[in-house]
Write a structure and sequence with these properties.
Layout lengths: L1 H17 L3 H12 L9 E7 L6 E7 L2 E6 L6 E6 L9 E4 L9 E4 L2 E4 L6 E5 L6 E6 L7 E4 L7 E5 L4 E6 L5 E6 L1 E2 L2 E2 L3 E7 L2 E6 L4 E6 L4 E7 L1 H7 L11 E7 L4 E6 L4 E6 L12
Helix pairs in contact: 1-2
Bound molecules: calcium ion (CA).
């Protein structure tokens, strides 16, 4: 994309200096204004094994364990393992009933909240023994979920449904209180999938792309994007991945301010670091 930017800048300069064609300048300006955001650089810190049978839908780090929900009817499950993993670690978890399609998970106040795609009911699960603690309804499809906890305001969940919309739910009632459209330069960005909240940031996988979007959750603005194509290529090296084996799964590790990312059926989990872009001052929803 940098090359393209340089290319269009050179078009602009030539048009400007020559001043021969106002039309050429206008076209160059038009193309530049529609240019997408530059990719945010990241650093690959570590690579860990990931069970390639997992159809990753949710990823969450909580008290030294990595929780993961795996989708598809008849195969859905939620599992946990110590993280970083070692070969002798045991994996705990629970297989889910055949009519449940596990989707995004998020830990909130010591409980796991899990969406179930089109079923319209979320499950509240005990993270130690994987017992069902409760059920909550939600509107539309449920894809990704993260708990947004910011000092000084009420806690929320943020939920994606595969569109450009992020739904804000009150964490105490799970009621829908606000819907935000995610946009880049004013254009809707859809296919939002697995999420991770960090303060007012919402980090989102975009389904069927290698993009990790850094979103200002308060207004839906995409602040930056990470292009994780190199990680997808690395994950594809062990054996060719299926078309649906796409980037999905992002979890924040507060211990070293890093992020764990993986994909459906990927053999690896990657730890990356990047610098979050600054947020503008604004009151929250
Ligand atoms: Ca997550």
């Amino acid at each position: 994309m940098k090359t393209l930017t340089t290319y269009f800048k050179s078009i602009f300069r030539r048009a400007h200096h020559a001043a021969r064609s106002n039309l050429a300048m206008a076209i160059a300006l038009l193309i530049m204004s529609g240019n997408s955001l530059a990719d945010l650089p990241y650093q690959l810190i570590d690579t860990y094994p990931h069970q390639p049978a997992l159809f990753t839908q949710g990823l969450e780090l909580y008290q030294g364990k990595l929780y993961e929900s795996s989708g598809l009817y008849g195969y859905s499950k939620i599992i946990a393992r110590k993280f970083p993993p070692s070969p002798t670690d045991s994996i705990s978890g629970s297989a889910l009933p055949a009519d449940i399609f596990a989707e995004g998970i998020s830990q909130y106040r010591g409980k796991l909240y899990m969406l179930t795609w089109r079923a319209g009911r979320g499950l509240i699960i005990d993270p130690q023994h994987f017992k069902l603690l409760g059920v909550f309804p939600y509107q539309g499809e449920g894809w990704g979920l993260c708990a947004s906890v910011v000092k000084g305001r009420a806690d929320h969940f943020v939920m994606s449904n595969g569109s450009d919309k992020l739904q804000w739910l009150a964490a105490d009632t799970m009621k829908l209180i606000n819907t935000v459209s995610v946009t880049e330069h004013g254009k809707a960005v859809d296919q939002l999938n697995e999420l991770e909240c960090l303060g007012d940031y919402v980090i989102a996988n975009q389904w069927h792309t290698n993009n990790l979007l850094i979103i200002d959750g308060r207004n839906g603005n995409v602040l930056q994007k990470l292009d994780l194509s190199a990680l997808a290529t690395a994950a594809n090296k062990t054996s060719p991945l299926a078309p649906e084996a796409v980037l999905n799964g992002v979890a924040y590790d507060a211990s070293d301010d890093s992020w764990l990312v993986t994909g459906k059926l990927w053999p690896s989990i990657f730890r990356i670091k990047y610098i979050l872009p600054a947020l503008t001052k604004q009151t929250g929803p």
